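hey m, so remember when u said the tokens were messed up on ur end? i reran from scratch. heres the input so u can diff it against urs
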Amino acid sequence: MNFYTRKWVKPEDLNAHGTLFGGSLLSWIDEEAAIYSIIQLETNGCVTKYMSEINFISSAKQGDIIELGIKATHFGRTSLTLTCEVRNKITKKTILTIDKIVFVSVDKNGLPVPHGKTEIIYTDERLRED
């Protein structure tokens, strides 16, 4: 898992219980997953198709720094499947996991189109996994 994005939990990100609002976190994940997919598929023409069960394991509070980790797990003909983990940057405690997020490459009419990719592209050598 590569951890690409870090977010600082601010007051506007909190729910009524004073912890990170799940909707804010899911928005951050969807945006980061879209950016990851665009880079992997080398096209802006991809959309979120599916998100599996979202497992909230622990919470984050104001002032926490969290990391969003995303990794490609499968390349389909028109799709890219990702996995996601969010953790606390300092404690390394897992906050959330999503086993499967699927993005689909689409044409200008929104119809699925083959992307021709079969393996992860590393945009930063230091993030390469061995």
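this time it looks ok to me. The beta strands are 2-8, 46-51, 54-56, 65-75, 79-88, 94-105. if urs says something different then somethings off w ur setup not the seq
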